[in-house]
# Entry
Amino acid sequence: MTRAEMLIELMERLGLGPIVRSRIGGAWAPGAGDTVELIDPYEDAPLIAYRDAGAALAAAACEAAKRAQADWAARTAADRGGALHAIARVVTEGAEPLARLEALSAGKPIRDCRVEVAKVAEMFSYYAGWADKRHGEVIPVPTGHLVYTLKEPLGVVFQITPWNAPIFTAGWQIAPALAAGNGVVLKPSELTPLTTLALVALAEEKAGLPRGLVNVLAGLGPTAGQAAIEHPAVAKVIFVGSAATGRRVAAAAGAALKPVVLELGGKSANIVFADADLSAAAKGAQAAIFSAAGQSCVAGSRLLVEASIAAEFQDRVAAGMAKLRLGDPLDEATEVGPVGNRAQHARVSASVRDALSGGAQAAQGAAPASGLFIPPTLLSGLSFEAPAATEEIFGPVVAALPFEDEAEAVALANSGDYGLAGAVWTSDPGRAHRVAAQVRAGTFWINGYKTIHVSVPFGGFGGSGFGRSSGTDGLSEYQASKAVWVETASPPRTLFGYDAG
Ligand code: NAD
# Structure
């Protein structure tokens, strides 16, 4: 069986049928715009092509979400929670084909895809639990009024997700939006729409998700995406993707006076002090950058190492790099897959070439000669301002930079625009907490890297975006507080001017 045939078989099994179409109002809707080709990053070969949803389907999706949302918001919160629990169950039941579809179409190792699908089920369970527990409060104001707040849904939210973690980012945003009573339009990356489409179709067909409550656009950003941002039914835009696109999305949303959450990229500092457990730190440094072939927003792509151990530590990381198993994403043994698409392969290759021609040195692991592979690469001898040391490369490439002391490590970690994540490796607890407090990052690990959980808030500072996902912070992004004032005085107080109580 060819991999294109395997793809069709998985699509059929998950209810998508043999064609890539948008999911609108609980039915499949073929696009009529430009042709988009999906490729298999492992073989660098075409898998399937489809037509962009365009502005017309975007409008249909927003209207379907608006119609379905009114009934959804009118249900009891406990009922909505029950529906989310049912989605968690069907995701668990369909976990293996979902993970295989993700591995095949996104080029991500199957072992990572299984974990991500399990996390999606966990996200629906987690927010199912919150659905009836995030209510308003009574506020004892000095005027004697009875004042209470209501936590209301926003209406329809538009979510935009990237190609590097398609089903993960879909579950991450759909679950809290539904728990809070919203309708959803989601545009996954045009390069990896399949598992998001499958997730929503499964939820509708097998978990009773009301049709039209979540709509998925198989389409392009400037057409379908832009039209949905501008659609009057959309109350808020949640964007997960690159900083460059995030700026455009925020500008378009701002012009329409709509709030946005921006979950953008990073250039996260992984700081290693000489007193750290160097064996654990070296393994952590590899996992930080080479898992998902570096295509992770939190990737530890700047390895800051105390100068006294820099050479020795780089050798340790390079030795580990040589042992990484690169290969077929569908192979159980594969630890590192290809990069996800041709444009990204070209960008990462160019970044490494430019760094080398600028005088950097590279230690590289091995990679298959065919497909969109980039060998794991550790760059050293870079200046602190070099593009490879400051810009998000989003591939298996780490820039190693030495520092002299704690103050310099913190200053380097905080240099540049990004503020998404970071880590420190040290055996000195006081220093660990000092550094954690000073590094400007939404997520920071001490003697570890890359653990995340739906119960823990996640997001960035500065060029890494604003707003938060996950946990109760993430739920708050999908709710608005309404204050209700009830007059209790008899006769009523003056209605003119402000009442001082
Ligand atoms: P991207 O910015 O190229 O695309 C993201 C999404 O935006 C896609 O769905 C795309 O179609 C859409 N888009 C493009 N132009 C648009 C427009 N004009 N209007 C509306 N939508 C538009 O990002 P990518 O290359 O798919 O993903 C990789 C990036 O995502 C990296 O920078 C990575 O760090 C970031 N990321 C961030 C997080 C996070 O939580 N902070 C998580 C995963 C990925």
The longest strand covers residues 146-153. The chain is about 40% helix and 20% strand.
